[in-house]
Automatic annotation (TrEMBL):
InterPro entries: FAD-dep_OxRdtase (IPR006076), FAD/NAD-bd_sf (IPR036188), Gly_oxidase_ThiO (IPR012727). The lineage of its organism: Bacteria, Pseudomonadati, Pseudomonadota, Gammaproteobacteria, Oceanospirillales. One of its GO terms (biological process) is thiamine diphosphate biosynthetic process. One of its GO terms (molecular function) is glycine oxidase activity. Pathway: Cofactor biosynthesis; thiamine diphosphate biosynthesis. Its EC number is 1.4.3.19. The gene is thiO. Gene3D superfamilies: D-Amino Acid Oxidase, subunit A, domain 2, FAD/NAD(P)-binding domain. This is Glycine oxidase ThiO. It comes from Aestuariirhabdus litorea. Residues 3-343 form the FAD dependent oxidoreductase domain. The keyword Transmembrane helix does not apply. GO terms for cellular component: cytoplasm.
Length: 363
């Protein structure tokens, strides 16, 4: 029997399994599909909330903790797995901002580097931009990571660990209770799995797992669609953001474009309408992209939550049951801090993060 069973092997579940194994725990990791897929794989990899000053303080605190941890994590995983997550600190350029005063006040409050730049500086930072860009906001310390490679590295790490037992492509999963406490989970493909504690980290599918216990977790699916252009290295230099659309350059020249924000339930198929919309946005930001082919178009389901504040903590009324879900658009951004907080709850080891803002609702 494991010390902890984790339901969900996206970036949250994978990082938590690694952290607990490093603390000496025996871990069982379950996922209804292959490891490292879902919203974690489908996202963009910007290691910052978009327009971070527009988020509640609870999100900023987790994001700030995580941003300081990512360079170390990327280097460790590269060394331990020989898969480079390609963390790059190339900054974030934001354009057409109508709340600059709030942004600058947020920057001063949290000590984050953010500056207003004029049109000349905007062109220096990203010469390929289209249109007239008289001003912008520039965050030079923001990094990005190639999230599929991060997930590949985490997956390799957990597969190699003798303390972690992995079950993937499990099909339907349900939780098992005995005497008012969770004792494990039942997977459609592999049957019964027992553990001293269970963590639900199943992203947009977390709420249905908890509903049989009378827990109404306000986490819901939000579809996001993305494109990948096969461009040439150096065409795009910076992560650039206009509205809800952004372009992210990769080291090999590919350019990632995102993303849509669609409330369509659990429908996860990409649509031609959003592809056209993303192409229009991308080529409006970087006109030269019109000369390159779109290599891929895909969709993922984010775990939406009120205000984007995740739920991290013990499930009310059910012993030995914990939740880490509802990270919305910032699962990758918040994953290291969320992992540290949940590890602290499960092992008693202090992490310096106050868990109160992330407590699950009580009916």
């Amino acid at each position: 029997m494991s010390d902890t069973l984790i339901v969900g092997a996206g970036v949250i579940g994978l990082m938590l399994a690694r952290s607990l194994a490093q603390q000496g725990q025996r871990v069982t990791l379950l996922d209804r599909q292959a490891l490292g897929r879902g919203a974690s794989w489908a996202g963009g990899g910007i290691v910052s909330p978009l327009y971070p000053w527009r988020y509640p303080d609870a999100v900023t605190r987790l994001a700030s903790w995580s941003q300081g941890f990512y360079p170390q994590l990327s280097a460790e995983l590269n060394h331990q797995t020989h898969i480079d997550p390609q963390y790059r600190q190339q900054g974030l350029l934001m354009l057409e901002i109508d709340d600059e005063a709030q942004a600058l006040a947020w920057s001063a409050r949290y000590g984050r580097e953010l500056e207003r730049v004029d049109g000349h500086r905007v062109r220096e930072l990203e010469p390929a931009l289209g249109g007239d860009r008289p001003t912008g906001l520039w965050m030079p310390t923001v990094g990005s990571i190639r999230n599929p490679r991060l997930l590949q590295a985490l997956t390799r790490w957990v597969r190699q660990s003798p303390r972690i037992e992995v079950f993937e492509s499990c099909g339907l999963v349900s939780l098992i209770t005995e005497g008012g406490a969770v004792s494990g989970a039942f997977s459609q493909r592999f049957g019964r799995h027992e553990a001293d504690a269970v963590v639900v980290a199943a992203g947009a599918w977390s709420a249905p797992l908890l509903s049989p216990f009378g827990i109404s977790l306000p986490v819901f699916p939000v579809r996001g669609q993305m494109l990948l252009y096969r461009a040439t290295p150096g065409l795009v230099r910076r992560v650039s953001l206009i509205g809800n659309r952004y372009v992210i350059p990769r080291r090999d020249g590919r350019v990632l474009v995102g993303s849509s924000l669609e409330y369509e339930g659990y429908h996860c198929h990409p649509t031609i309408e959003q592809r056209r919309s993303l192409e229009q946005s991308a080529e409006g930001i970087i006109p030269a992209l019109a000369g390159f082919p779109v290599e891929r178009h895909w969709a993922g389901l984010r775990p939406g939550s009120p205000g984007g504040i995740p739920f991290i903590g013990k499930a009310p009324g059910v012993d030995r049951l914990y939740v880490s879900a509802g990270h919305f658009r910032n699962g990758l951004v918040l994953a290291p801090a969320s992992t540290a907080l949940m590890t602290s709850m499960l092992t008693g080891q202090a992490c310096g993060i106050d868990g109160a803002p992330y407590a699950l609702p009580r009916d």
